[in-house]
């Protein structure tokens, strides 16, 4: 599901978590505000989650630890106003892309991220 409408200010509907076969959720570049619903971590068939370039606040939900059991490969949360620690367990999700830059996150990135090779499109 891809939705981009920079003129639409709103929140992420927790009901999206009911779409349990959803593989791609691309909501980047909207004016989304508020917290990321923790129930999105229940989308275990999700391959790509892109919530970048919005105005999301709060912490990365602990529910995202569920992605350890899922298929997630791309997690993009950059350019928001997220705060708090980066969950240690996210380091055990075998991601190809993990971008949380330009937020207000704190703590250390799990050393388990170092076992993955860094890939660049350039």
TrEMBL record:
Pfam family name, one: LRR_1
Protein's organism: Ceratopteris richardii
SUPFAM superfamilies assigned: L domain-like (SSF52058)
Protein name: Uncharacterized protein
Domain of life: Eukaryota
InterPro entries reported in the protein's UniProt record: Leu-rich_rpt, LRR-RLK, LRR_dom_sf
Gene3D superfamilies: Ribonuclease Inhibitor
